[in-house]
Each structure stands twice: as C-alpha cells, then as structure tokens.
Amino acid sequence: MSPKPSLKSAEDFLSFVNASPTPFHAVKSAKLRLESAGFKQIKERDSWSSSLHPAGKYYLTRNGSSIVAFAIGQKWKPGNPISMIGAHTDSPCLRIKPVSKRQSDGFIQVGVETYGGGLWHTWFDRDLSIAGRAMVKTKDGAIEQRLVKVDRPILRVPTLAIHLERQENFQFNKETQLFPIAGLVSAELNREGGTAKESKDNIEGEKEDGQPFEPLQTPTDRHHPYIVQIIAEEAGVEPSEIMDFEIVLYDTQKSVIGGLNNELIFSARLDNLMMSFCGVEGLISSVSSPSALDNDSTIRLIALFDHEEIGSQTAQGADSNLLPSVIRRLSVLSSSESESDKSYDKCESDVSTAYEQTLSTSFLISADMAHSVHPNYPAKAESVHRPEMNKGPVIKINANARYATNSPGIVLLQEAARRAKKASSSTSSSAHGIPLQLFVVRNDSSCGSTIGPMLSAAMGTRTLDLGNPQLSMHSIRETGGAHDVEYAINLFESFFENFGELEAKILVD
C-alpha cells in the first residue's frame, strides 16, 4: 500500500486564505511569513544603496495591498538576471459603497458595488461579514491604517422565494437586488433606546448641534452608525476616530479540505491566493538553507499585485511602475563595498545599461489559477488539453498572446520541474520531478488573461503563464486540488534554485 499523501502544505494554505479575506490581509499574511523567515522590511521612499547587501532578504509594500519580496545572491553583480514569480492578491467581491446607508420595508440594508467579474448569483444566501482597512485618527493627530476583520456573520443577500417568481434561469438586477440585509430597523431602534434620529446640515455648513463644518458627511452619517461602531471596535478606536474605510464583504464559511479521500480544497479566493501563497512559500523554501545564496549570482523575487481582477491599471497593479522600478533599483546594486566605492564615472559606465541587461536575461512566471476540466461540462475543454486536479501545475498557452508563454519558457520550466524535489503526495519512486500539464482554450471560446502579457510587454522580460487547476473560478466558493499546493511550492523552489544555471543554457536573442 502506498503511503498516505501529506496534506501539510494544503493545511498551511488554509490558514493563509482563512486569515486573508482582502488584499490588505493577504499582504499582512505574506509579511508575517516572510518576516519569520528572516526577510526585512524596506520602503520605496528610502534610499536602498546602504541598506541592501548580498545574501540579504527584503520586502516592501505599496498601498498595503501589493508586496514585493526578494533575496539577493552573494555573487550578484549589476545587470545580472532576476528570477521572478508574479501573482495577485485580489478576488471578485462586493464592496461597501461610499454612502451605504439603506433601509426598506423595515430592513436595514447596506449599499454595495461589484468588484471584478464575479459569479454574483453565488453570493446569495451566504453568511457574509465585513473586512478591509479603516483610516483612523490617532491620539497624536496622525492618520494610520488599521485592518478590520469581523468574524461573525452580519449580512446576507436573500433570494426571492421560488413561489413568488419561478425562474428557470436565475436573473437579478445588480443595482437593486444585490443589496444585503444587515438587520431590522425595529431591532436597531431598540438597541439605541428608541432615540435614533437623522442628522442634517444647514445651508451655512454648520451642523444643527453646533459641531464644526465637515467637507464630507462623516462616516456615521454616510453609513449605518452600528456598522461604523463595529468597524471601530475591530480597529481598536472610537467611532469618531474613523475617518474613512475601504470595506468589502466576505463569506464567513472557512476554507476546508474536502473530498472522499481529502484530495480537494473547498475555499473562497483560490483565484488567486493559492498561487500567491505558493509563491511566498516557494521563495522562503529556496532560501531556507544558510548557504542557499552563497553561490547565487541572481536575485530571487516575488511580486503580489492588487487589482488584477479589474485590469491592473492602478498605482499598485501589475500595469503600474511597481515591478519595473524595483528591478531598476536592484539592477544597479553593487555586490561589494569595493565596487560601490569606485569613482562616479567608472560606476556610471558600469551600470548605465544594467537595467536593460537585467530585463533581457530575467524570467517571470505569471502565476494565476487555471481551469480544470469540468465533469458536468466536458465539451467546454479542448479535446486534448484537459487539465486535472492533483496532476501538477498547468502551463497556459494562447496563440493570440492572452497568455505570455512561449517555447523557450516551456523548456526552462520543464527543466526546473525535472529537478524539483518530489512532492510527498507522489507515489513515484523517483527522488525528483513535478508533473506539468498544458492548456489552451477552445477556438470557439473566449480566453481570459493575466498579468503576464502586460508585464512582459512593459519590461521585455521572458514570461510564462502557469497556475494550478480549479473549478468554479470567480464563485464565492471554489474547488481546487489539495496536493497541487505542494506541487507548485516545490516547482517554484526549484525555479529559484536552478534559474541561474538554466538561464545561461537557454539562449534566444
């Protein structure tokens, strides 16, 4: 009898995704793991010339929702290659509107707007709560970010009973019929002692109770006061200290291992927190040995971006200057004090093309979840490209460049997979090897895209698109393979460890 497959990596992922209902929380979860592995925080606003050193491990964040982490090889020189894994921290969700206070027919409701391309019918009749960040005023007058995650269900989007409208295909209006209920007006009046009243501003901008002018309505005016109170309690401040917030709804049901043989994962936000998690763990695993960076002439880097689901064209998205600017600063790093002490003219001539050299020799894995073949819709998959769960990561290919994969990248990744340590879930007697799968979409189907094409176009860096297979992508609850987590971590670890050698052998100009 073969040994029972290990679920350690899958269970570790569950702790990550359950703690990360928003991109802000996903970045926090990644930071905690990186810091425990010896990575030190740096800031974009600071100079890096004196703070970064060979064999050092560092990370930086932007907007609290995107994070870049990297480890510098001991033998790094300006212009050398960087091995990169890119993923994203966001998922489709419902976000509380700037003015969310609603009530109708005795119900308290919360106004929300859709973020990304979600399967919104799956959000009906779920136990929902709120999470995100609040900007709060501290005792010394500063404004700082506080993360908020309410663990109890407080919201629900109810469906209409089948007796009242029999629909063969469930349809609804996202503006008028997707508002969640948060309680009853009568219960809120009882909680407040029957003293609830509306505040109004007069023409001069001075409130009727004599309070000073506010350019905007306060959060307690724009939102139900009890919602603001709950957010304030989670942030550890008074409601009056809440200046503004970015809050989304999330499903309170925990992510779990499922399936008859514990081979599946039932979870929210598999797309794309699974690949974000695997990227973080792959980088950490690759530098876990004290001597891991001793003979490395490259930099190992992960970049987890916000806003992929809405096109990435934001300051913290993949289509921003975040990754190019980090690479530009890293590309000119000197590997020793003697090099950095050279005269300005000599140093300038040495590094004048370092950024372009680094881009031309670097490689990016765009890691975003892939589609598994669906047993109830088998015709939706191309006849000989049918990825299956727990059979390894999926290389995604598209002739129209919706994915950035090409043959040199496939060759490089194959070799990394060949050298990767065997997953504990494998029954093979070989000491090495991670299986890979290939995917192309049918010619009569549309094809999604990833951060891969935009980053490869912006930087000219060789790129490959890859992801673990899953079902129900963009649903509030998705399904993936429990053993694919370990496959991806081991593949990414091998990619980082072997890239320096492999890059020099695969020559395409």
From TrEMBL:
SUPFAM superfamilies per record: Aminopeptidase/glucanase lid domain, Zn-dependent exopeptidases
Catalytic activity of the protein: Release of an N-terminal aspartate or glutamate from a peptide, with a preference for aspartate
CDD domains in UniProt: M18_DAP
Region (Disordered): 193-219
GO biological process terms on file: proteolysis
GO molecular function per UniProt: metalloaminopeptidase activity; zinc ion binding
Entry keyword set: Aminopeptidase, Hydrolase, Metal-binding, Metalloprotease, Protease, Zinc
UniProt cross-references to Pfam families, sorted A to Z: Peptidase_M18
Cited InterPro entries: Peptidase_M18, Peptidase_M18_dom2
EC number, as in UniProt: 3.4.11.21
Cofactors, names only: Zn(2+)
One of the record's GO cellular component terms: fungal-type vacuole
Biased composition (Basic and acidic residues): 193-210
Family membership noted in the UniProt record: Belongs to the peptidase M18 family.
UniProt-listed NCBIfam families: PRK02813.1
Listed name of the protein: aspartyl aminopeptidase
Organism for this UniProt entry: Glonium stellatum
